[in-house]
């Protein structure tokens, strides 16, 4: 009886909030001067996702998939309307490292990712290989949308708190990032993400590890051989600062909640697993610290705390 009552309460809350979001989108479309409501709509979509995540213990898999698809459709409508009424500025690359240890490369113009026409990025990296210092600094990423596309054997550090991050077609790449809202990962393999966000979406990705923090849950689709563990700040001082900026509650990490939309059984999904504690080897970011913050090192090489 308790699960039936919870399900009924969820359905009413979900339907009410979904209708509210839809009405707000219609209102903005009819009256474009109300574009200031875009941030409110995004917050309500996040609330809707959290509501769905909290219902996982009693909601059937079919209903989870159905309601998740509805959230995807609302998100798509939001992004399309946002792009129509408030188009992004032209994409610009992040700063290139200029030390002798890193070879400068000629920057090509960024081409939007074909698979995601709605998403328009403010900054990021595309078509790079064998680079250990692909870095975006705080002033470049604050509340921006970041895209990483077609990177091979690289280390990427995104400082500060971008709004969203989209990583597409990465191979053997380590990514350090803390996004204020969502991280979307597609067509990646043999990568490691040291990341934090409200939402994490994973599509068409294989043999990839996640040391993560998430306030809602991770959602995966058409992916396999994924491994998850909680993020550790013992090896990630730069991200620790970003987490403080994002005001995340580190005591509420839902890294164990992974929804696999290709596995609707109540049995554990064969497509992902937790990384055993003895095998957790989160990559260090020491080389990034040395590159970005040489003044934080004293003569003995000890890293001072952030100001």
Would you mind describing this structure in some detail?
With 307 residues, this protein is α/β, with parallel strands linked by helices. The protein has 2 domains: 7-81; 123-297, Pectate Lyase C-like, CATH 2.160.20. It has 6 helices and 14 strands. The chain has helices spanning 2-30, 38-54, 61-85, 138-141, 237-246, 286-292; strands at residues 123-129, 134-136, 145-152, 155-158, 164-171, 174-178, 182-186, 192-197, 199-203, 206-214, 218-221, 224-230, 258-260, 272-274. The strands form 2 sheets. A 7-stranded parallel beta sheet has the order 1-3-5-7-9-11-13, with no helix packed on it. A 7-stranded parallel beta sheet has the order 2-4-6-8-10-12-14. α1 runs antiparallel to α2 (38-54). The longest helix has 29 residues, at 2-30. The protein is globular and about 50 Å long. The N and C termini lie far apart (54 Å). This is Tubulin-specific chaperone C.
Shape: globular
Secondary structure category: alpha/beta
Largest sheet, order of strands side by side?
A: 1-3-5-7-9-11-13
- How many strands, which pairing sense, and closed or not: the largest β-sheet? 7 strands, parallel
Helix content: 25-40%
Q: Over the alpha carbons, how many angstroms does the gyration radius reach?
A: 20 Å
How many domain units?
2
How many DSSP-defined strands? Answer: 14
Order of SSEs, N→C? HHHEEHEEEEEEEEEEHEEH
CATH topology of the largest domain: Pectate Lyase C-like
Query: Beta-strand level of the residues, as a percent range?
Result: 25-35%
How many angstroms separate the termini? 54 Å
What is the CATH class of the largest domain? Mainly Beta
Do you know the CATH architecture of the largest domain?
A: 3 Solenoid
What low-confidence regions span 5 or more consecutive residues with pLDDT below 50?
91-120, 295-307
Mean pLDDT: 78
Number of helices: 6
């Amino acid at each position: 009886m308790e699960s039936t009552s919870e399900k009924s309460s969820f359905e009413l809350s979900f339907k009410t909030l979904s209708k509210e979001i839809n009405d707000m989108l219609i209102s903005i479309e009819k009256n474009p001067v109300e574009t200031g409501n875009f941030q409110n709509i995004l917050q309500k979509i996040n609330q809707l996702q959290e509501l769905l995540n909290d219902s996982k213990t009693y909601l059937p898999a079919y209903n989870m998939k159905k309601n998740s698809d509805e959230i995807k459709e609302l998100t798509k409508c939001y992004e399309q309307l946002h792009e129509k009424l408030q188009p992004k500025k032209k994409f610009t690359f992040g700063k290139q490292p200029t030390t002798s240890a890193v070879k400068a490369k000629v920057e090509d113009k960024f081409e939007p990712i074909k698979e995601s026409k709605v998403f328009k990025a403010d900054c990021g990296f595309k078509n790079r290989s064998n680079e250990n210092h692909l870095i975006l600094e705080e002033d470049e990423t604050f509340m921006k949308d970041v895209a990483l596309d077609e990177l091979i054997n690289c280390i990427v550090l995104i400082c500060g708190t971008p709004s969203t991050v989209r990583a597409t077609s990465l191979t053997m790449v380590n990514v350090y990032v803390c996004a204020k809202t969502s991280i979307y990962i597609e067509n990646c393999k043999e990568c490691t993400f040291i990341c934090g966000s409200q939402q994490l979406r994973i599509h068409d990705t294989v043999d990839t590890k996640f040391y993560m923090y998430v306030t809602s849950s991770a959602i995966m689709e058409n992916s396999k051989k994924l491994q998850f563990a909680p993020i550790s700040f013992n090896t990630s001082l730069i991200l620790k600062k970003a987490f403080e900026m994002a005001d995340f509650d580190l005591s509420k990490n839902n890294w164990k909640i992974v929804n696999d939309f290709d596995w609707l059984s109540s049995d554990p999904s064969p497509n992902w697993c937790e990384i055993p504690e003895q095998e957790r080897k989160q990559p260090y970011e020491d080389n990034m610290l040395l590159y970005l913050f040489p003044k934080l090192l004293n003569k003995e090489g000890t890293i001072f705390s952030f100001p």
